Amino acid sequence: MARAYGVDLRKRVVEAIEEGLSTREAARRFSIGISTSGAWYREWRSSGRLEPGRQGKPKRSKLDAHEAFILALVETDERDITLAEIAERLAAERGIKAGVTTIHEFFAKRGITYKKDGARGRTAAPGRSGGARRLVRRTTRSRPEPPDLHRRKWPQYKDGAASGSLAAR
Questions:
Q1: Per the confidence metrics, is the pTM higher than 0.85?
Q2: 56 to 2, 4, 14, 36: CA distances (angstroms)
Q3: pLDDT the model gives residue 154
């Protein structure tokens, strides 16, 4: 991951713009992007801050405080509960708005994933809507060997006989 520019460069860019240079001229003078110099100046005008913000994903989720409630929903629900239903219950009972992706990441962080059923088979006939998937703890990989990519065996001729070498032609 790239590092943020230092505070000293940010300060010099903002001072140059304050002295009358345009953001484009300041960017050219300090060899940075035009939008970067403009963003730094806008941030300084609005908040007076020159320090770079924290980079990367947040360490905590807004759902961490509601962990017991969410896990209780999964364990005590008689029928299988979906991520969308969990989001609805969080909004109704706790006032927390969370998207399906946020809830999925919450479960993935704890090693809980969707499975169709215990045997990992179909839950209904093809073309029919089966029941909702249930959440289970992930124990091992579902496939012990790498997947078969269904590639054609190469080289083969049209009649299916494999070639031994180029000299056999």
A1: no
A2: 11, 12, 25, 18
A3: 47
